[in-house]
Amino acid sequence: ASALGGGGGAMAAAGGKLSLRFVGLCGIDDSVDVGFLKLLAKEFPLAEFGVLFRPDKQGTPRYASWDYLDKLKDVAGLQLAGHLCGKCVNDVLDGDGSLVARLEAEYGFKRIQINPTAVNGVDTSVLGERVEAVAALMRTHPALEFIIQKNDETRPLWEPLLANPPPNMALLVDESCGLGVAMEGGYPAPSDGVKTGYAGGIGPHNILKVLEDVTTAAAQEGKGVWVDMESRLRSDINGSDCFDGHKAFVVLQQAQEFLAKD
């Protein structure tokens, strides 16, 4: 059995140092064989597969097509997270939760990440006015975990929510605003009462160092955290931008070894 544990439950390193909920692999798309994802999930039960949603890009690299999603929903045991971008975020901010409801009911998604940044095609000037709409969406779907990307740009949204956080709210610390740039100077401790994850420039080249730094930030808090990555899992394969299954395997294998060490 995998040393990462199962069912998406947090697992600690042998010394009780780090409680890791998920290793998020974002940007799965039509370039990835669904059978390979099934094998990864079986070997590494903490693997979470992130699907990006942005209508003007669906079916292009990093953005799975709906036909591909129809294949995913037939595979048991996949932990799926929907990462909303562009119009999908704007719709949520406007109170339209139809996509979220569909992902939960028809496709079995367990977590939804809201990426309300300019680089993701979102009008960030209205974030402060949309706090209640997002809180209402969280209340409407209590079985879903909602992740808000946490950085200075998104502060007008997450800071008011953090004042009285819904029980199914989580934060993803990503100072690069989704651009895949590593954080300098270490990671902040998890926010009180809110599940916390970390992203930005993570990949097979630095996953061990990241887990060490996350341990320093989170172990004293005794809280389960997760890490998430996207850009560093891509490769140019036969001239196409593809999700690199080998890189994903290496990340998961190194995370497993980190958790299993004395």
Coarse morphology: globular
Report, as a whole number of angstroms, the end-to-end distance.
Answer: 18 Å
SS class? alpha/beta
Count, helices: 8
Structural summary, described in words:
By secondary structure, the chain is an alpha/beta fold. 31% of the residues lie in helices and 21% in strands. The chain contains 8 helices and 11 strands. It has helices spanning 34-43, 66-72, 87-93, 98-107, 131-140, 155-163, 207-218, 245-260, and strands spanning 11-12, 19-26, 47-53, 79-84, 111-114, 145-150, 169-173, 195-199, 225-229, 234-237, 240-243. The strands form 2 sheets. An 8-stranded parallel barrel has the order 2-3-4-5-6-7-8-9, surrounded by 5 helices. Strands 10-11 form a two-stranded antiparallel sheet. A hairpin with a 6-residue loop joins β1 (11-12) and β2 (19-26). The longest helix has 16 residues, at 245-260. The radius of gyration is 17 Å and the shape is globular. It starts with 10 loop residues before the first strand and ends with a helix.
